[in-house]
Amino acid sequence: ELGPAGVLGMAISGVDNALWDLRAKLLGMPLWALLGGRFRERITLYGSFSRASGDGYLTPLECARRAAALVEEGFGTVKLRMSIREENLNP
């Protein structure tokens, strides 16, 4: 697929990242400084998982258990990737 989620978008993204990295190296500065500097001292992490699992999808109960396990690991926020695009590709 060549659309926004396809190989073309991934290729453009890779080239874009490489060009930013090259520019920072040529200027002798870290990329984060080139992009505007430090914004905050700390960032909050979140736990994430997909409901897609092998040939099917996790049930709501299985999703709840995975989310609870991430909370037990110390994550204060959990993101569930719904995998809707993938579901629509495989009716």
Summary keywords:
13% strand, two-stranded parallel ribbon, 4 helices, alpha+beta, two-stranded antiparallel sheet, single chain, 91 residues
Q: TL;DR?
A:
By secondary structure, the protein is α+β, with helices and mostly antiparallel strands.
Describe the structure.
- With 91 residues, the chain is of the alpha+beta class.
- 48% of the residues lie in helices and 13% in strands.
- It contains 4 helices and 4 strands.
- It has helices at residues 7-27, 31-34, 60-72, 84-89; strands spanning 47-50, 52-53, 56-57, 78-81.
- A two-stranded parallel sheet has the order 1-4.
- It is flat and about 50 Å long.
- The two termini are 17 Å apart.
What is the strand tally? 4
Main sheet specs: 2 strands, parallel
Spatial extent as radius of gyration: 19 Å
Mean pLDDT: 88
* Class inferred from helices and paired strands: alpha+beta
Strand order of the largest sheet: 1-4
Uncertain segments: none
Order of helices and strands: HHEEEHEH
Helix content, binned percent: 40-55%
Q: Can you lay out the helices and strands and say which pair or pack?
A:
Layout: H1 7-27, H2 31-34, E1 47-50, E2 52-53, E3 56-57, H3 60-72, E4 78-81, H4 84-89
Parallel strand pairs: 1-4
Antiparallel strand pairs: 2-3
